[in-house]
Amino acid sequence: MPDRTMNATSTSEPFSSPGEAGPGREARPRVLLVEDDGKIAQEVAEELESRGFAVRHAETGPAGLAAALAETFDVMVVDRMLPELDGLTLIETLRGRQVSSPVLVLSALSAVDDRVSGLKAGGDDYLTKPFAMEELAARLEALMRRPNNTRETMLHVGPLSMDLIERTVTRDGQPIDLLPREFRLLEYLMRRPNQVLTRTMLLEDVWNYRFIPQTNLVDVHIGKLRRKIDDPAGVPLIHSIRGTGFMLRVPE
Amino acid sequence: MQLGEVLRTATFRLTLAVVVAMIGTAALQFSVGYSQTKAFEFRRTDALLHREAALLAQEAPQDLAHKVSERATDDLRVVINQAALFDSAHHYVAGDLRAWPEGLAVDGRVHELTVRPNEDEPYVLRVLAVPVAGGRVLVLGRGLHMLAEWRLMMRHSLLVSIVPTVLFALLCGIILSHRALGRVGRMHEAIDRIMDGDLHERLPAGRQRDEMQRLAGSVNRMLDRLEHLMGEIRDVGNDIAHDLRTPLARVRARLDRAQAGTLSADDLRTVIARAIDDLDQCFSVITALLRIGEIENARRRVGFSLVDLNEIAADIVDLYEPIAETRQIRLELLAASGPVPVHGDRDLLIEVLANLIDNALKFTDEGGDVTLAAFTDSQGSARLEIADTGIGIMPQERQAVMNRFYRSDKSRHVPGSGLGLSLVSAILRLHNAQLTISNARQHEERPGALFGVTFPPPAQAVF
């Protein structure tokens, strides 16, 4: 289970650049990192910088609050335990002042209900330490993109079309027969095209499970889906991102 | 052992309290006794005065003066200390009371007056004045000397008895405190030795079953448990070291090979990928360990709510079906007809089921069956059963598989952190649920394993 671990050294993979594909350096997404542990902060900042983020680091709660109020950030990473001003209080304060940038809450390994309180305070996602850098990057990306949650009854990604009412899927007009669980998984992928989705994200969001399975569950489900979506057409849409997860990529 | 230390002991302080109580009791006894005696003595005095006055009043008026003065030598003096006759203007006529007592009223009632004779100290009398024939007044008085004597005697005897009693009690207190201090001192010495690292040392607990020895017994049982736990931790430490060393050694060997520089780019990539897999194995062990620690420390059950096991079971089967399919194992859900409510944490219960199913799939061969059932049993308890058709678990191994890191020798080749079942038992302990392991069926080579989980009935499970 590579999901939450710190094996974050392989950056050679063609990770999708943040923001829309290829917007150029000038549009680097801005991240506010509020983290008191200098070592972790440095590591995270360097990693995110190398992935094209512009990182602003604040060491304490008040400093983070001041920074978040002074400038606009695309996304924020806030540690739960901060000196002087607790992370959750910080988020609540920001939400109270109409700062709506998405927030990912970082926390040391802790009880299940911690997650709930983190999300209740206004956090948008929650990640427990230790985590893989890929996991963090993928989640930040997901937070910035905001999924395509339109009320439309049809989803279209490349050659794929999904009818949410009829519960049918076609590729290049050819109907594909999917089980309900496969339909759910594909819907999640289609709402987030060209975006790296980690195994943990899929487990949490598609199946609503918060445990780390001993087996490659997600891979098997993706494999089944792939066989139905990609195999007949010959051109793969679902790609594996090594050491990270999967991506539904629209062919150019 | 210093005297100060003795005087500070709980035993000695208790002795002091007893001594104070003793003195208080004696004082109370004395004062109640005295007031009772006083009331009795007053009544007796008044009755005597009235009777004597009535007797004297019957005398002929001419004899009365003689009778009264004669009383000075009479036996009756013991009873009636003073007697005198006054004329109507309260002038002395006869008797041993020379002056009219100040404040005395002739009303046939007994008065308590202080008499101040010229030649003597003033003293208190109970006095009765009755009119007699010839307009004269007969005055009879009785002193309170009996009462005073009695009080003096009682006070004296009280003092004489209380002083040695108190001294004796204090002495006993000091001796008992000394003994208690000695026992506590021996316990302190034992505790010091334990703190110095001698974990086999125990507190002295004698045969008497007094509170001190019961406490020592409890502490000893606690020490036994701690020693056992320490042993477990040591074993777990060794197991962790072993389980981490193997993959780490492989990583090292692979990196060595990569460093040698004779590999092609493709081979290098393979080597690195395998090294990452080995490291992931290490991380999975560490993550599972942290998770178990987290669950075992979670005293809180705030995340608990009413959860439907049937629904969770259906979800889990949906999640694991593709895996079973790829291994050609039939994964079957024997669903209950209605909801199977359990008071618990949904996420943790999913983890339990996922681990048990995962485990069952791992130990079942191709073509086998894994069956999951959730139902409410005849006692009203929710029950889960996970049965497989694998090699099964030997009765003598059933307890051990729930311990950390235990992996049957038969299953050494099966990948995994070896912590899945420890995680399951930690979560079930949090839910007060019972986990049992038995054979799933009658079969010589493949009896299969049946993991049964019984939850407490909902009424008991609400904390």
Automatic annotation (TrEMBL), chain A:
Residues 1-27 are annotated as: Disordered. One of its GO terms (biological process) is regulation of DNA-templated transcription. GO terms for cellular component: cytosol; protein-DNA complex. Residues 1-15 have a biased composition (Polar residues). Residues 152-250 form the OmpR/PhoB-type domain. Keywords: DNA-binding, Phosphoprotein, Transcription, Transcription regulation, Two-component regulatory system. The modification 4-aspartylphosphate is found at residue 79. It holds the Pfam family Trans_reg_C. Residues 152-250 bind DNA. GO terms for molecular function: phosphorelay response regulator activity; transcription cis-regulatory region binding. Residues 30-144 form the Response regulatory domain. This is Two-component system OmpR family response regulator. It comes from Gluconacetobacter liquefaciens.
Automatic annotation (TrEMBL), chain B:
The chain crosses the membrane at residues 12-34, 156-177. SUPFAM superfamilies: ATPase domain of HSP90 chaperone/DNA topoisomerase II/histidine kinase, HAMP domain-like, Homodimeric domain of signal transducing histidine kinase. CDD domains: HAMP, HisKA. It is found in: Membrane. Residues 239-459 form the Histidine kinase domain. The keyword Plastid does not apply. PANTHER family: HISTIDINE KINASE (PTHR45436:SF8), SENSOR HISTIDINE KINASE YKOH (PTHR45436). InterPro entries: HAMP_dom, HATPase_C_sf, HATPase_dom, His_kinase_dom, HisK_dim/P_dom, HisK_dim/P_sf, Sig_transdc_His_kin-like_C, TCS_sensor_his_kinase. It is an enzyme of class 2 (transferase). The keyword Membrane applies. Its EC number is 2.7.13.3. This is histidine kinase. Residues 178-231 form the HAMP domain. It catalyses: ATP + protein L-histidine = ADP + protein N-phospho-L-histidine. Keywords: Kinase, Membrane, Phosphoprotein, Transferase, Transmembrane, Transmembrane helix, Two-component regulatory system. SMART domains: HAMP, HATPase_c, HisKA. GO terms for cellular component: plasma membrane. GO terms for molecular function: phosphorelay sensor kinase activity.
